[in-house]
Amino acid sequence: MSSSFAEVQRGHLLTEQANPSSADLDALSTADLVAVFVEEDRRPQEAVAAAAPALAAAIDAIAERLRSGGRLFYLGAGTSGRLGVLDAAECPPTFCSAPELVQGVLAGGAPALLRSSEGLEDLFEAGRDDLVARGFNAADALVGIAAGGTTPYVQGGLSHARSLGALSIAMACVPAEQVSMPCDLDIRLITGPEVLTGSTRLKAGTATKMALNILSTGVMVRLGKVYGNRMVDVAVTNSKLEDRALRILADLAGVDRDAGRALLQESEGSVKLALLMARCNITAARARERLASHGGQLRSALE
């Protein structure tokens, strides 16, 4: 299946319609222009709140895949793809996850992060091909991101995921009745027309980033990489993260900074192991065994 510029009509899409609130944007004072943006930027929060049940279902479904050895892929073009790459890139330093566990796939690859390659989004087969190149398989989960829902690149990737039996999740900012997407789970973030007509890097982009943050963080919580609201799987790789790790150990295990540094050294920089060692008064080797027997879940290992 392929697409050309002439084949796709998008004027009916909510993301392409003109916003009456900003009809005179160029004639407004700067203060009034900013006021329009501030008011309209309430919509992304409302859109994400309305999509909460779908986000919760997606978190549980993705976590199940990852527990069984699968991976999470974000796929998109333009702003949508860049947001996926950003969220994926932030998982390893935040959760000490393997770089391949959460991957962002952007139409045009790395060069498209800095220089727009929007024409590539019209290639239906390219979405499939980029997933094949990453070794995407039936055990994995895919989140196809397209603000307007019509992007052939994303439609192609989702179709490929479904054909394999992988988990396929669509994320768009238009109602499902305007655009259908091949998927198992459908997340719709209805942010309405943009302040600048058609510029989905604005409200649609904001809602998308919020939703992706919730997805990845929620999945990592379910995988045991969070205790309470602390990032106990954070990698201690610089002075800021060492300070954070020492504060976590002080707050949750009652150890001073010197004792905390000793624990981190014994645990090879693992905050989670250091906490278990301090709270249960056990060695690093015993802590590793106990944590492994509880599937990496610190809370159950402590209990």
Give an overview in words.
The protein has 303 residues and is of the alpha/beta class. It folds into 2 domains: 218 residues, Glucose-6-phosphate isomerase like protein, domain 1 (Rossmann fold, 3-Layer(aba) Sandwich), CATH 3.40.50.10490; 64 residues, Helicase, Ruva Protein, domain 3, CATH 1.10.8.1080. It has a 5-stranded parallel sheet, with helices on both faces. α10 crosses α11. The longest helix has 20 residues. The N and C termini lie far apart (54 Å). The N terminus is likely disordered.
Give the CATH architecture of the largest domain.
Answer: 3-Layer(aba) Sandwich
- Give the CATH H-level superfamily of the largest domain: Glucose-6-phosphate isomerase like protein, domain 1
Cα-atom radius of gyration: 22 Å
Total number of helical segments?
13
> Tell me, what's the shape?
globular
Topology at a glance:
Blueprint: H1 30-40, H2 43-50, H3 52-67, E1 72-76, H4 78-95, E2 102-106, H5 111-114, H6 124-133, E3 141-145, H7 152-164, E4 167-172, E5 185-188, H8 203-222, H9 239-253, H10 257-266, H11 271-280, H12 284-293, H13 298-302
Parallel strand pairs: 1-2, 1-3, 3-4, 4-5
Helix pairs in contact: 2-8, 3-8, 4-8, 6-7, 9-10, 9-11, 10-11, 11-12
